[in-house]
Amino acid sequence: MDSLIAGLPFDTWEEETVPNFAGGTVGDVINSFITYLFPIAGFTLLVYLVIGGYKWLTSMGDPKGIQSARDNITYALLGFAILVAAYWIVIVVGRILDISAISDIFQ
């Protein structure tokens, strides 16, 4: 008996959803990872901002608690800014040097 996932047989579901890296290159692995990188980074940013806001609200005016919360928020925004800057640097360098592989990845 075939097990069904989302109404499809498992073999079909596996072929449709799981990337096959057998015989692929490192570039293929990186290319498939990049599609998940920015949503993960956005979710992580949201989590750190919420944690920082919660720390700020529950610090009850304690200067050390407020500073810890402020640092948490600052580091979250700084990390996100670094990620976005790295993305744009790669895009600009790829266009300046006319590297088609970069423009294929970031469509």
Structural account:
Helix content is 76%, strand content 4%. It has 107 residues and is mostly helical. The protein has one domain (25-105). A two-stranded antiparallel sheet has the order 1-2. The radius of gyration is 21 Å and the shape is flat. The two termini are 41 Å apart. The model has no long low-confidence stretch (mean pLDDT 81).
SSE topology sketch:
Blueprint: E1 4-5, E2 8-9, H1 10-17, H2 26-58, H3 63-96, H4 100-105
Antiparallel strand pairs: 1-2
Helix pairs in contact: 2-3
Provide a short characterization of the protein structure.
The protein has helices spanning 10-17, 26-58, 63-96, 100-105, and strands at 4-5, 8-9. With 107 residues, the protein is mainly α.
Features:
2 strands; mainly alpha; 107 residues; two-stranded antiparallel sheet; flat; 76% helix
